[in-house]
Design goal:
Length: 127
């Protein structure tokens, strides 16, 4: 979940994350959800009611460590950021489910998600 200093592109709605996690769990069974975020307090406040959720606070001194951990996930619910896009792209397996917001930015003209990724329309809000 990318939020800090990112609003000019459009922030992804909280419902997008909730719905995508529920969709993956409906298909794959109970799964732990780990939020990789630059705003852990926001994530705790909004998602603490979801079962089996963990918040990974961003490592500003070593973002590659976060990137590696994110890329090791089985399934992905990504933000509209290149960081999460590349982690999903490089970490996806044959059975990975990848959810991406649509449009990708408030300009809405382009979405870099491959055809096999699941796009969620109307996923962005103005900051």
């Amino acid at each position: 979940m990318r939020r800090a200093e990112y609003g000019q592109f459009g922030l992804v709605k909280s419902a997008y994350y909730r719905d995508a996690i529920a969709s993956i769990r409906a298909e794959q069974g109970a799964r732990k959800a780990v939020f990789f975020t630059d705003e852990p307090n926001f994530c705790w406040a909004v998602f603490r009611g979801l079962p089996d959720v963990a918040i990974a606070e961003g490592n500003l001194d070593n973002p590659l460590a976060d990137f590696y951990l994110l890329s090791r996930c089985a399934h992905f619910v990504i933000a509209n950021s290149s960081f999460s896009w590349w982690a999903a792209w490089l970490g996806r397996g044959d059975d990975s489910i990848i959810h991406a917001p649509s449009p990708w930015t408030l300009a809405g003209r382009f979405n870099p998600a491959p055809k096999d990724w699941r796009l969620t329309p109307d996923a962005l809000i103005h900051p």
